[in-house]
Design a protein that fits this description.
Elements lengths: L1 H28 L8 H32 L2 H28 L2 H25 L4 H29 L5 H29 L1 H19 L15 H13 L2 H17 L6 H8 L4 H25 L5 H20 L4 H28 L6 H13 L1 H15 L1 H22 L1 H4 L13
Helix pairs in contact: 2-3, 2-5, 2-6, 2-7, 3-5, 3-8, 3-14, 3-15, 4-5, 4-7, 5-14, 6-7, 6-11, 6-13, 9-13, 9-14, 9-16, 11-13, 12-13, 12-16, 15-16
């Protein structure tokens, strides 16, 4: 009887341990619950390919522009060609995302981006590629992105339930950042092997993305409003300007993009003129940023359930400024890679939490329009890159990026000290609803 009792106790203890372990496992998997939904999973994998193509495009076009011209200003002009149309057309893209079939918009955008990548690849293969070619192709890319980005975010709201929406947004950022690890490495290796193959591979990724997105169901038909597209855009702007907390969040994204974003386009300058390493090392530098970003977005998945999301975001923002300053004045590739990992971690944690807060404070009907205005902040980065590229040519990349990073830390620190939205936790503002 005593032996049986000891065995029983051991068995009960084993079962309790299994239940405890299983509970912990289920608790951890809960943080990835949105991927349990088949339609969101399909969108996630489809956009994984698309974002991979975009990341490869960033590194390959930056390398090509600097290889052709040897000028930081040329890098800024190429980026400006893509960013200016994004800035001007963002409200139109957001209104379209709220008004039309999101699935068709996404698929069409992938086929258009594939065509542009093919054109870029053919020009490289023929050996006739010039800076103005890169600018023109960038302009057309900038026309397409304002329709693709808000549509994807708004589409997530159609594919997951309300409870899993923050989790889906965080996982969307995680998927994007997985590409920032993998795609730049592929892009750097392919550029070193054959720039032509690198650009053809971008086109293949966009094609595969389009084919995968074609398997998604169409969302519920958009409600046809009596007002025009211009009326929809105006309603979105009125909705946003009536909410001070949303304006603060978008302003915080703007500051980070303006001062903490251009360094990525300037990495070829650090690679060639500061660190004196080859194109493969450039791929590693982008990969280091992406590796940190993956862990940053994963940390944001857990932080998305915290009541202190705003304070976490601000701490990450100050850390971006400090670590980016350290990178700017690094004199070895190993130190540069180390600090780039930290920059990537903190930057993406900052942006992921910022994006979640923006969407949680937005009514579903306005998702596309608010996201489009939010994405306008990203379009402003090329505007900052032009003067920064000019400064790089005159005073060097380390001083230019380092001063911008110090300014970023000071501004975020000021927001931390003086913003009432941060110093106290407040409930969402109650504002009058806008009628259709």
């Amino acid at each position: 009887m005593g032996m049986f009792s000891r065995r029983s106790r051991r068995r009960v203890g084993t079962v309790d341990a299994e239940l405890t372990t299983g509970g912990r496992l289920r608790g951890q998997l809960h943080h990835f619950s949105a991927l349990e939904m088949p339609n969101f999973r399909m969108l996630w994998f489809g956009m994984l390919l698309s974002m991979g193509a975009m990341q490869m495009n960033i590194i390959d076009r930056s390398w090509l522009a600097y290889h052709i011209s040897g000028s930081g200003l040329a890098l800024g002009l190429v980026a400006l060609g893509r960013g200016l149309p994004q800035l001007l057309l963002a409200p139109v893209g957001g209104a379209a995302a709220d008004r039309f079939d999101k699935r068709k918009l996404l698929i069409s955008s992938q086929f258009c981006l594939m065509t542009l990548a093919l054109a870029n690849a053919i020009l490289v293969q023929l050996g006739v590629i010039q800076i103005w070619h890169l600018i023109v192709i960038g302009v057309f890319q900038g026309i397409i992105f304002p329709f693709a980005m808000p549509t994807r975010t708004a589409y997530i709201g159609d594919l997951v339930d309300e409870e899993r929406f923050p989790n889906a947004l965080a996982l969307d950022s995680t998927g994007r950042n997985l590409n920032r690890v993998i795609a730049p490495s592929i892009g750097g290796i392919l550029i070193a092997f054959s720039p032509t193959i690198a650009f053809y591979m971008i086109a293949v990724f966009y094609l595969l993305s389009a084919l995968m997105l074609m398997r998604l169901p169409s969302p519920k038909p958009a409600v046809r409003r009596a007002r025009s597209m211009a009326g929809d855009m105006a309603a979105g702007i009125r909705y946003l300007t009536a909410r001070n907390s949303l304006l603060l969040l978008i302003g915080m994204a703007f500051v980070m993009v303006l001062l903490g974003g251009p360094y990525q386009q300037l990495l070829p300058v650090f690679q060639i003129d500061v660190l004196h390493v080859g194109p493969t090392a450039l791929g590693l530098m982008y990969t280091a940023v992406g590796l940190g970003a993956v862990f940053g977005s994963l940390a944001a998945v857990f932080a998305s359930e915290s009541p202190n999301k705003r304070k976490i975001q601000l701490g990450a923002g100050i850390s971006v400024g400090l670590s980016l300053t350290a990178f700017a004045f690094s004199n070895s590739i190993y130190a540069a890679l180390f600090f780039l990992v930290i920059v990537g971690f903190m930057t993406d944690g900052y942006f992921t939490i910022n994006r979640i807060l923006v969407m949680l404070e937005t009514d579903r009907e306005y998702y596309g329009r608010v996201v489009s205005i939010y994405m306008m902040t990203w379009s402003l980065m090329p505007l900052a890159l032009v003067p920064m590229g000019e400064l790089v040519d005159h005073i060097g990349a380390p001083v230019t990026v380092g001063v911008a990073a110090i300014m970023l830390a000071l501004i975020i620190g000021g927001i931390t000290l003086f913003s009432p939205h941060i110093r106290r936790r407040e409930e969402p503002e109650i504002v009058p609803a806008f009628s259709d």
